[in-house]
């Protein structure tokens, strides 16, 4: 099943359009969450103005940057292995190349990185990318450079990202940074700082600009998008200290969705990630109200046991989560729902694990991202709880979780067989150059013969077969999203 992630996501990125006058070469590699991939586009934008063009050939790079992930130990080990590879390239064929570490590992390890890894010249945390021109100047002069200061304000709202490795159809637009939730297992609040939201006008401007450039789908990004709250800038936690005027005119996530959906009614809108304790019924009604907001919610739960949810500091119960699922189905018919799960959190018993499996049976998730618990230094769980579930037990429970997900995923996919669904064509199918791949509103990938359709078209696809992650069918014409005249919004 494609959606079950066993390896961390990774990618080396290049911009299609290179600036002729730029003489230096940047190799940039990203690991981890979508936010890291989006941040790399901001970094590329900043460095393009400093005379860099991107390359996928490390041997010719002047500067090699790796945007890192700390979420699980394995993610950090992957980056350490990459650093060894950079070292070999530097020794063998590119003695002048400089190496910078960005992202969550940079923030977590700070200047310790320079001591631990000789290859590293520069360490830059997620809020310090605007300082890159100065930091690069430092390393050019042979010094080491570090900036890991977390910010109360920074949202990079004023930087137009350079789209890396783009299919020209789908793009990320970041709307919040940081996370205030303090789930006890999670390193993100430490590496990405406190929550702040981006000015809605700059978000809409970016969306309009993407539409002008031919993009058809955006994903609004944040660690916890439902917590979005713009009241003129500053930390979310300081909202209560803002003026009455600022509070009265604040924009929340549901309002932002309405604004974005209305600004570009033919642009599809997705968002990630939703948090069960923060998603409001207003958000559900906003999704239902707009034809162009996709019927898909990524709604991590982590565990189905009330006791474990409490230990994780997830601020809802199993029952509240189940009632939320019921409301989603009542308000948004045919909404797809996906999960994140953690197997083997400290103190998890067989009974807790069974509660997770039974919750999964209740929800019947469309997809899932499932992980064995990995203790992260400095988190509350690491400080207060012993990592006491043996590795083989974690693995067995994880496999049982994956098995249920495979089964419900297939059941959910089969629902579409015999139906005709609207898909946005994104790229060629991985398995055949005669087929397109596009997603439907529920985020299922459909593959179908290319015929005369092209990338970026909205088409109606008759589904005749499926696997647990892919729908198989044939296009039967354009959808009304293609035609502004017949197009009819639900609102
Ligand atoms: N709100 C974030 C969550 C980031 S972490 C978002 O935008 O996706 C993504 C997922 O990694 C979490 O939902 C959780 O399931 C998993 N995860 C986080 N910390 C973990 C840990 N210490 N061990 C195992 N999995 C973890
Ligand atoms: Fe991590 Fe929980 Fe925030 S999983 S990113 S602390 S919502």
Describe, in plain words, how this protein is organized in 3D.
Strands 1, 2, 3, 4, 5, 6 and 7 form a 7-stranded mixed β-sheet that branches. A 5-stranded mixed β-barrel has the order 18-19-20-22-21. A 3-stranded parallel β-sheet has the order 8-11-14, sandwiched between helices. The chain folds into 3 domains: 10-147, 3-Layer(aba) Sandwich (Rossmann fold), CATH 3.40.50; 170-411, tm_1862 like domain (pyruvate-formate lyase- activating enzyme, Alpha-Beta Horseshoe); 420-478, Beta Barrel (OB fold (Dihydrolipoamide Acetyltransferase, E2P)). With 491 residues, it is an alpha/beta fold. The protein is globular and about 65 Å long. 33% of the residues lie in helices and 22% in strands. The chain has helices at 34-48, 73-92, 103-109, 112-116, 132-140, 188-192, 200-212, 244-248, 253-263, 281-289, 306-311, 318-331, 350-363, 380-384, 391-414; strands spanning 10-13, 24-31, 52-54, 63-68, 98-102, 122-124, 145-147, 170-174, 176-177, 196-197, 217-221, 229-230, 251-252, 268-272, 296-298, 336-343, 367-372, 420-428, 435-439, 445-449, 458-466, 470-478. Helix 7 packs parallel to helix 9. It binds S-adenosyl-L-homocysteine and FE3-S4 cluster. FE3-S4 cluster is lined by residues 179, 181-183, 186, 188-189, 223-224, 275.
């Amino acid at each position: 099943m494609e959606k079950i992630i066993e390896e961390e996501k990774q990618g080396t990125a290049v911009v299609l359009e290179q600036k002729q006058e730029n003489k230096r070469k940047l190799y940039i590699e990203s690991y981890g969450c979508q936010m890291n991939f989006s941040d790399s586009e901001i970094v590329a934008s900043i460095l393009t103005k400093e005379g860099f063009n991107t390359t996928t050939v490390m041997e010719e790079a002047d500067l090699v940057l790796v945007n890192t992930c700390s979420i699980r130990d394995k993610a950090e080990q992957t980056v350490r292995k990459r650093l060894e590879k950079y070292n070999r390239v530097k020794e063998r064929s590119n003695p002048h190349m400089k190496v910078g570490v960005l992202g969550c590992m940079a923030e977590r390890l700070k200047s310790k990185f320079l001591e631990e890894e000789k290859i590293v010249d520069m360490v830059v945390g997620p809020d310090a990318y605007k300082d890159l021109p100065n930091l690069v100047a430092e390393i050019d002069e042979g010094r080491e450079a570090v900036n890991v200061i977390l910010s109360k304000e920074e949202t990079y709202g004023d930087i137009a990202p350079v789209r890396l490795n783009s299919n020209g159809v789908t793009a990320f637009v970041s709307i919040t940074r940081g996370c205030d939730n303090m789930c006890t297992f999670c390193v993100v609040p430490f590496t990405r700082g406190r929550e702040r939201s981006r000015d809605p006008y700059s978000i809409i401007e970016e969306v309009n600009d993407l539409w002008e450039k031919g993009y058809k789908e955006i994903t609004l990004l944040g660690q916890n998008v439902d917590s979005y709250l713009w009241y003129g800038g500053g930390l979310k936690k300081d909202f209560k200290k803002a003026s009455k005027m600022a509070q009265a005119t604040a924009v929340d996530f549901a309002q932002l969705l309405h604004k974005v959906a209305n600004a570009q009614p033919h642009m599809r809108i997705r968002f990630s990630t939703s948090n069960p304790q923060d998603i409001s019924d207003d958000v559900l009604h906003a999704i239902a109200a707009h034809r162009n907001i996709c019927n898909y919610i990524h709604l991590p739960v982590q565990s189905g046991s009330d006791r474990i949810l409490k230990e994780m500091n997830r601020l809802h119960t199993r029952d509240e989560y189940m009632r939320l699922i019921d409301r989603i189905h009542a308000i948004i018919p045919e909404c797809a729902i996906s999960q994140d799960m953690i197997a083997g959190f400290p103190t998890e018993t067989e009974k807790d694990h069974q509660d997770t499996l039974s919750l999964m049976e209740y929800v019947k998730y469309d997809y899932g991202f499932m992980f064995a618990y990995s203790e992260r230094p400095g988190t509350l769980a690491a400080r207060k709880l012993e990592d006491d579930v043996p590795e083989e037990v974690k693995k067995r429970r994880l496999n049982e979780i994956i098995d249920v997900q495979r089964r419900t995923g297939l059941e959910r996919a089969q629902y579409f067989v015999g139906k005709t669904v609207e898909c946005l064509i994104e790229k060629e199918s991985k398995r055949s150059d005669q087929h397109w791949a596009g997603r439907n509103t529920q985020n299922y990938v459909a593959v179908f013969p290319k015929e005369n359709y092209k990338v970026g078209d909205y088409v109606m696809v008759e589904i005749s077969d499926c696997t647990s992650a892919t729908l198989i069918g044939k296009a039967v014409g354009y959808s009304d999203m293609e035609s502004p005249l017949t197009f009819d919004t639900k609102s």
